[in-house]
Each structure stands twice: as C-alpha cells, then as structure tokens.
C-alpha cells in the first residue's frame, strides 16, 4: 500500500513530498479541532486549508477550493456597458419581490440609482469596478464604493458581486470578495459593508461564512385594513 505522501504525489497534489508531509501534520491539528475542543478560530476550515496549501506551494495568488486562480482586473467601459442593463433589471426585480414595489416604479428607481452612483461609468470617482477571471474565462464581477459616500468616512460599500451562472458554487464569489477586501485594506480602508435582500439566502450564507455580521435590519410586512 502507498504511504500518504507517495499517494498524494502520485495523484498530482501540488508541491513536493515535504509540502505533502507538512499538510498532513496540519490536517491532524484540524481533525483535533473538529473532533475535540475547537479553538473557535472563526474561519471556515476549507478556506484555511486552501490558503495554507496555496502559500505552501509558493502560489502568490491563492486558489479557490476548485483549484482555479481568480484574478480581478479593472472593468473596461465595454464590459460595464454590457452589464449595466442586466444589473438594473435584476436590482428592479429584487425591489419588486422584497419591497413590494410596482415593476415600473422599481425599474425607474433602479435606473436612477445606478446613474447617480456611477455617473461616469467605470471612471466614476470612488468606484472600484473589477472583472473576475479564471484563466481566460470571465467568471464574474464586483463593484465597491470607496469610503466617503453614504456609508461614512471609514466604510467602503460592496454594491454588487456577481458570479456568472455557469461558474457558481466553485468558490469564486468568496475569493472575489477576499481579493477586494485585500485591495481595500492595502488602501487603508478599515471596513467593508453591504446590503443584501432578505430573500438572497445564498449570498447571506456567503457573507456570514466570510465573517460579515448583521449591523442593522430592515423589516417589512404586507398590511391590510382588516389587520
Ligand atoms: C452570491 C454569489 C455571488 C455567490 O457566488 P458563488 O461563486 O456561487 O459563491 P461561492 O462558490 O464562493 O460560495 C461560497 C459559499 O457561499 C454559500 N452559497 C453560495 N451560493 C449559495 C446558494 N445558492 N445557496 C446556499 N449557499 C450558497 C455557501 O456557503 C458556499 O459555500 P459551499 O459551496 O461550500 O456550500 C452568486 O450566487 C451570484 O452571483 N448570485 C447572483 C448575484 C447576487 O445575488 N449577488 C449578491 C448581491 S448582495
């Protein structure tokens, strides 16, 4: 029977024998944490392992769980033009579902808001618009407003993150947010906030797992004269 190191090397694990051995020792610690008394680190073990392996084998750009390296590049004007219409539509649809707005009113409001937030498209002051790629494939995009807007002088705001439907559940959304957080931290921004519609359970899951916590909650109820 193959030893664990030989097995992983034969199956194409990244790194060499030393890295595989080190990973095994680390995994023993993780097992103890999962099965015994946890250190309550507050991180998803999957993410810790992925980041660890990535650093271990010298990768400068950490991998997603699936092994793809996500890169964020500044969004081009052409890419923005392509995304504008679907963004307005999906934002309007969410306002209909979550806030009970009439479809026309929702479309008007979404169009106005986007025009106000990005008056000069990708060149709008205080906006970070990034396209996410894995190799040659465009997998999604992300938009953050730098501090100084309605969120205050110290908080940046995640206005949108989107992974294209064919690329979801591969860890790309998580990685995109981590990359934009790193970009913001390098700029000296201490906090990133966001709004999420209550019906968007997938995104809520993702934000929770990344360490975001509820700071305020909006509640609505359909009411009628009968009570
Ligand atoms: C939300 C979104 C960006 C997530 O991107 P993604 O690449 O699929 O997310 P990830 O693969 O990184 O998911 C990480 C974790 O988030 C959670 N998650 C993501 N999508 C989920 C879903 N549909 N249902 C439940 N949990 C989900 C899971 O915990 C997941 O980890 P797991 O796959 O190990 O279970 C993507 O679904 C999307 O583009 N949705 C439409 C746009 C949108 O709603 N954006 C958010 C605006 S606030």
Low-pLDDT parts are none
Rg: 21 Å
Largest sheet: 5 strands, mixed
| Protein structure class | alpha+beta
| SS field, number of helical segments | 7
**CATH C-level category of the largest domain:** Alpha Beta
Specify the helix fraction band.
40-55%
Summarize the helix and strand pattern as letters.
Answer: HHHEHHEEEHEH
Ends apart, CA distance between termini:
71 Å
Beta-strand share of residues? 15-25%
Shape: globular
Q: What is the CATH-assigned architecture of the largest domain?
A: 3-Layer(aba) Sandwich
How would you state the average pLDDT, rounded? 87
| Count of the domains | 2
Superfamily (CATH H level) name of the largest domain: Gcn5-related N-acetyltransferase (GNAT)
The name CATH uses for the topology of the largest domain is: Aminopeptidase
Describe the structure.
- Helix 6 links the parallel strand 4 and strand 5.
- The protein is globular.
- The protein has 7 helices and 5 strands.
- The chain has a 5-stranded mixed β-sheet, with helices on one face.
- Helix 1 packs across helix 2 and helix 2 packs antiparallel against helix 3.
- It has 2 domains: 53 residues, no CATH class; 140 residues, 3-Layer(aba) Sandwich (Aminopeptidase), CATH 3.40.630.
- By secondary structure, the protein is α+β, with helices and mostly antiparallel strands.
- 44% of the residues lie in helices and 15% in strands.
- Bound molecules: coenzyme A (COA).
- The site of coenzyme A has 19 residues, from strand 4, helix 6 and helix 7.
- Coenzyme A binds next to strand 4, helix 6 and helix 7.
